[in-house]
Specification:
Length: 115
Amino acid sequence: MGYIVGAGGLSVGFSGDTGGALMGFFTHPAPPDVLLIDVTWPERMRAHAEASRHMTPGMLREELLAARQAGVALPKLIAVHRSLREEPELLRELAALQTELNVDLEPGYEDMVIG
């Protein structure tokens, strides 16, 4: 389940533990300006991510490529709900994904202000 909320001219989506399935956000009649996405595990833990309905950078990559192929615009992406134990590896993979696809993707952090 995910949410899109808006206030003051800014809309923010939150993917929750959807295991992917982000296309609904991208094709929504009022798509979010910013999407907080659950990217919990590094790619080597993909089986664990799939079982727990979380995502890896590789799973996110697949979602973003599908959106691009469908011709939909991508919002600013903020990766949240990251495993602290796996964070160094996960941040490297997210940075590589951001560079590879040239998307506006950054890790979320405590006390982050969006807007």
